[in-house]
Structures are given as structure tokens and as C-alpha cells.
Amino acid sequence: MVNVIKRPENENDMFLLTLSDFQLSNKQLSNLQKTDEYLMVKTKQFENQNIEKEAFSRFTNRPSFRNWEKINKLEGTIYTYAVKDRNGVSYMSAMYLVKEMLKKNPKTKRCILRIANSLNDYFLSEIDGKDVSCLSMIHYKKDSVCLTFRASDIENELFVDLITIYNFFIKPIYDRKINIEIFASTGQNVNKFNKFTNKVKNL
Fold it and tell me: Which whole-number Å values give the CA distances from 80 to 9, 57, 96, 126, 167, in the listed order?
């Protein structure tokens, strides 16, 4: 089920892996949330497209919230909200358009949902703590979907990212077994890579 194509060898190295025939039921997703408080909170924020940061106040020790005091809103972290800002359409409209594109031309290579911020946003994140997205894009294809990250905290974020992205951006499109490709141009806490892959294998 998990095929590691490129393992991260050192901190901030790239990695690439594929998950074959990946599928989670609503019951499995619900059970995962019950055993992971961070996943549960993030799922609720995704559901409500809620970018207020207060719900995450118990998790400020995570590297992704290192600029907690400077951050006003989590417009980069909550991908269901980020869709409209980056693509000019609401989350629900984006899901509709993706399904229509795949229906009209299943072999299309153009079905890309952009999550990446502008260069100016990333610049501002370096100087004033603006919240920006780690996920860059979701590329929908006939029998697979590719998640491209500019950065991925393997220890603290990657598993939760996989589950929330699957729940909100993959399952609504395919709702069947699907191959998932995960590419990150930089990975953090790379010594936890095996722990992540084992956790996915045990789903």
C-alpha cells in the first residue's frame, strides 16, 4: 500500500511516496478523529472554513505555530478556506468544477487546485508571521491524485494533512479506492519518516 520512491535523507530533503488503492470509510475517519485531538480540531475548522486561531491554542508548541503571537488568522492552514482566496471560487464550487472536469475529460492533465500563496505572502510570513500554506497544489488525475507540498513537518503535520486532505478534497471527488502521490520539496523532522509510513500502513 505504501511505496517509498524517494526517502528524505537529511533535514529539509525532498521525499516522494505513493499510497496504492487508498480508501477510508466515514466510520474510519470518525474513529481517527476520536483518537487524535489535533485531527479532530483541524477537521472541525475545515468543516466550518473557520480561520480563527483560538481552537488551536492547545497546540502552540508545534513548529507550524511558532509565530503564534504574530498570527491573526489561519487563512493558510485551513485549506477549505484557502481555496477561495487562491482560486476565486468557493470550496464547494471548486469540488464541483473538479468533478465536472474529470467527467468531461478523465484523461485531463489540467485539473489542478492551487493552494500555494503568492510570493508576497511568503515574504510577509518571514517578517510578520502571516499564516501561509504548506500544501502547494492538488493535481487530480483519472486514477490518482498528487499532493505537492513546499514543506512538510513529518512528525507533527503530515499524517493529519493526509487525513484532512483526503476527507475534504479527495473522498468527495472519487469516493473509491484511489492512488495518492505525496511529494514534498522539503521535509522536516525526517527521522520520523518510518513512523509516518507505519502509521499509514496500519490504517
Answer: 32, 20, 14, 23, 11
